[in-house]
Amino acid sequence: MGEAEKPIGVFDSGVGGLTVLESMAAMLPGEDFIYVADQGHCPYGTKTAEQIGDRVEKVTRYLVSCGVKAIVIACNTASVRIDRARAVTDIPVISVIQPTCARAVEVTRNKKVAVLGTVSTIKSGTYQKILQESGVTCVPLACSEFVEYIERGGSEEEGERLVRDKLGAIKDAGMDTLVHGCTHFSLLEKYMRKVLGDINYVACGQPAGEELKKILARSGALNAAGGRIRVLTTGSVEGAKRSMSWFGAAHEGVAHVDIE
């Protein structure tokens, strides 16, 4: 198998990273993807930095063993520990954070950007640092409860109530742009719009996909003859299917994998 024909590895703590995969599959329809939902160890956002780094390293090693040509960490919390992935492989490893920040800086007009993330992502200060270095005021808000709700597949009424109650804290902060600093969160955007209105909403999928495409093109590793998507979970297959019922990209079902 040539370098271009190898698949791309993508992973997240759960199904949220499928929002990133869906964007990338649409942008790169000739590529094969292997997606790992680490649901057996979800959520990442309430774990310690060392625990998150351990999972990043183990899932990276697994994807490398599958023969991938690049890895996208489709998880903001895990992207903070990208050093642990890069320490165990020489293939490109892409974080969703930097390209997503760049897109937010590009679209904001009043230079005030809200960032929603898990407790761990917000506590790390990574988004705040990058945005502030770009001359943007950051309004951070930890929303780890959103991950649990999405992974569980809660009701519409619960989702709307949860978002309304949580975003009340920043409703009048004056930002014109909101970053989904967790790949799960774009699934709740319809509720966010009811609270915050038609501000700019920046998800991770398209910026990360554009970064991936640039890196593959630079090394001559773009593929035009693939299109397969394999979805793996370290948790329950039935649970994964239930929580990813919204996922629209054609894929080869869901299978279980142990990564310890």
User: Nearest-angstrom radius of gyration?
Assistant: 17 Å
Proportion of residues in β-strands: 15-25%
Shape annotation: globular
H/E element order: EHEHEHHEHEHHEHHEHEHEHE
Helix segment tally: 12
Side by side, the strands of the main sheet go 4-3-1-2-9-10
Helix content percent band: 40-55%
- Strand runs, count: 10
Which residues sit in consecutive blocks of at least 5 with pLDDT less than 50? none
Report, as a whole number of angstroms, the end-to-end distance: 28 Å
Mean pLDDT: 96
How is the main sheet built?
A: 6 strands, parallel
Q: How would you sum up this structure, described in words?
A:
Helix 5 (97-107) packs across helix 7. Helix content is 43%, strand content 17%. It starts with 7 loop residues before the first strand and ends with a strand. The chain has 260 residues and is an alpha/beta fold. The model has no long low-confidence stretch (mean pLDDT 96). It contains twelve helices and ten strands. Helix 1 (18-27) links the parallel strand 1 (8-12) and strand 2. The strands form two sheets. It has a six-stranded parallel beta sheet with strand order 4-3-1-2-9-10, sandwiched between helices. The protein is globular and about 55 Å long.
